[in-house]
Design goal:
The complex is a heterodimer of chains A (241) and B (340). In chain A, the strands form two sheets. A five-stranded mixed sheet of chain A has the order 3-2-1-4-5, with helices on both faces. Chain A starts with a strand and ends with a strand. In chain A, helix 1 crosses helix 2. By secondary structure, chain A is of the alpha/beta class. Helix content of chain A is 31%, strand content 29%. Chain B starts with 5 loop residues before the first strand and ends in a 19-residue tail after the last helix. Chain B has 340 residues and is an alpha/beta fold. The chains are: A alpha/beta (241), B alpha/beta (340). At the A-B interface, helix 1, helix 2, helix 7 and strand 11 of A face strand 3, helix 2 and helix 3 of B. Strand 11 of chain A pairs antiparallel with strand 3 of chain B. The complex binds zinc ion. The site of zinc ion (ZN) has 5 residues of chain B, from helix 4. Chain A: One of its GO terms (biological process) is tRNA threonylcarbamoyladenosine modification. Chain A: It comes from Companilactobacillus paralimentarius DSM 13238 = JCM 10415.
């Protein structure tokens, strides 16, 4: 199985070409590059390094969010267009699950994406005997206070927070001094791991309707619903003219 | 016989996702347009984050519909073109990433197209362009007079100093209780009303080719607010006619000033506001009144708004010149002619 995997859901960019479980090419960039500029050249370089053409690929694996809205859109747009235009299989993997893959297998893993104002996107994962990540608490957008409340049921020294920013680290240390904290710079999402997770994930059935997992409404929609408006199922908000 | 050129073009600069297949820059084999108007009407205007999300939902569907309708496959294509600016950055990026991906996957040359150039070249589907020609670009984002001296060679002669004309329509439309986009309704009301309010015609006395619509918009809003305060009933059709009367005076004054400085054989009007019936009538009358031997070209209504067909028309010129982009192409939200 030849897999092309990539992730641009946060500041780092990661591209990997994995053939039968072996990482043949791995391109990582942590410095602030523009994902929209780098992604396709990096894919091109990765394939070249692996000695493959894009036609040789069997499966496209993409981190589908949550994360930076623009970031996940860039990767998801490239992934769905590539899969559609070349008739390849497509797998979308949670960006948080991908971060959890950096954790210690013995720990209860809490991958995070800082969503500002002491909020985060977070999920809770464990690693099973086969080394696969299982969801304990589904990815969601939460205040850190609510997340801590949920996590109180677990042994604090078993908790491992992954991808913490300095502010999140400060909050976590106050609440769970015994917990393990992996900072952002030490938990880069690796597309090689993304390819591995993708191998055991069901491919997307309907590529046209594959969209990022934002886990949050836009502010405009949030306000609109808050005013008591209801989505009209009979109206299609986008129509062909 | 020369071989035909088939270009797949993408447009996603604002709230329309569009993919077209264009033959030789002249013939539309398909031009799929998915509009998000109904979504943004919930909010009274285009919300950028909502627009970007819709583009991701639509993009592959539009690609496949464009191929199906044109009855062609990827192997028939010669190039892929895409709008890279101006526009909303989040929206532009979806078309750009999709276009780059198709170009990369099928090893096709990539062409980056200026959205404004696309609007001008909508006329390519209507007439044979004769250089130099004058172009009046009127939309929700732009109000420009552009002289086109050769294929793909643009000189901006005049620009708006504040609001775009279509933006002014939407703003006064809101005062009249019309949801975005207000242009068509205001145009219809204006046809029924009379220009009785004497709104200011900004900058028409000035010897330049620039526009300003914010003063007109403010005068309109102040007049309505004043009437509300004193419980005076204003005739909405007359308000619309007075607003549009001022807009048409400004647009035609500057356009014919430009034409006097640069006599040409064709005046091309493009952009969303080129669908305005009042504008179409007014420019035709002015040409007749001045006995000018000049062809007036408006795109068909379907090509006035944003669409990928026009991007394909412009892309053909760049294809012929070998003007290709690389896979590191990025969006340029504030792109203008003079920056290229
Ligand atoms: Zn436009």
């Amino acid at each position: 199985m030849k897999i092309l995997a990539f992730d641009t859901s946060n500041k780092p960019l990661s591209v990997a070409v994995v053939v039968d479980g072996k990482v043949l090419a791995h391109i990582e960039s942590t410095e602030k590059k523009t994902h929209s500029v780098s992604l396709l050249p990096d894919i091109q370089d990765g394939l070249q390094e692996a000695g493959l053409t894009v036609n040789d690929i069997d499966l496209i694996a993409v981190a589908k969010g949550p994360g930076s809205y623009t970031g996940v859109r860039i990767a998801v747009t490239v992934a769905k267009t590539l899969a559609d235009t070349l008739n390849k299989k497509l797998v979308g993997v949670s960006s948080l699950k991908l971060l959890a893959a950096n954790g210690d297998k013995k720990h209860l893993l809490v991958p995070l994406m800082d969503a500002r104002n002491d909020n985060a996107f977070a999920g809770v994962y464990v690693t099973n005997r086969d080394g696969r990540l299982l969801t304990v608490i589904a990815d969601h957008h939460t205040s850190m206070a609510n997340l801590f409340e949920t996590l109180k049921q677990y042994e604090p020294n078993e908790l491992e927070f992954i991808n913490a920013t300095p502010r999140l680290q400060e909050l976590i240390q106050k609440q769970f001094p015994e917990a393990t904290i992996i900072m952002s710079e030490n938990s880069l999402p690796a597309a090689g791991k993304l390819a591995k997770i993708a191998e055991t994930t069901k491919p997307v059935k309907d590529i046209d309707n594959f969209i990022p997992t934002y886990l949050r409404l836009t502010q405009a929609e949030h306000d609109w619903y808050a005013k008591g408006n209801k989505e009209d199922k009979n109206v299609s908000y986008v129509e062909e003219i | 016989m020369e071989k035909d050129t088939l270009i797949m073009s993408f447009e996603s600069s604002c709230d329309e996702t569009s993919v077209a297949i264009i033959k030789n820059g002249k013939e539309i084999l398909s031009n799929i347009i998915a509009t998000q108007i109904k979504s943004h009407q919930r909010f009274g205007g285009v919300v950028p984050e909502v627009a970007s999300r819709h583009h991701v939902e639509e993009v592959t569907r539009c690609i496949n519909m464009a191929l199906d309708e044109a009855k062609v496959g990827y192997s028939d294509l010669d190039a892929v073109a895409v709008t890279y600016g101006p526009g909303l950055v989040g929206s532009l990026l979806i078309g750009i990433m999709a276009a780059k991906t198709v170009a990369f996957a099928h090893n096709l040359p990539l062409i980056k197209v200026n959205h404004l150039a696309g609007h001008i070249y909508s006329a390519n589907f209507v007439t044979d362009l004769q250089y130099p020609f004058m172009s009046l670009l009127v939309s929700g984002g732009h109000t420009e007079i552009v002289l086109v001296t050769a294929p793909g060679v643009f000189h901006t002669l005049g620009d708006t100093r504040d609001d775009a004309v279509g933006e002014a329509y939407d703003k006064i439309g809101r005062i009249l209780g019309i949801n975005y986009p207000a242009g068509k309704k205001v145009d219809q009301m204006a046809a029924k009303g009379k220009d009785t309010f004497n709104f200011p015609r900004a900058m028409v006395q000035e010897d330049n080719l620039d526009f300003s619509f914010s003063g007109l918009k403010s005068a309109f809003i102040n007049r309505v607010h004043h009437a509300d305060q004193v419980h005076e009933q204003l005739n909405k059709d007359d308000l619309a006619a007075s607003f549009q009367g001022a807009v048409l005076d400004i647009l035609s004054n500057k356009t014919f000033r430009a034409l006097k400085q640069h006599p040409v054989k064709q005046l091309i009007v493009g952009g969303g506001v080129s669908a305005n019936q009042g504008l179409r009538k007014r420019l035709a009358e002015e040409i007749e009144k001045r006995h000018m031997d000049m062809e007036l070209v408006f795109p068909p209504l379907r090509l006035c708004g944003d669409n990928a067909a026009m991007i394909g028309a412009m892309a053909q010129i760049q294809y012929d010149k070998g003007d290709f982009a690389k896979l590191d192409l990025n969006a340029d939200p504030s792109l203008d002619f003079d920056m290229e």
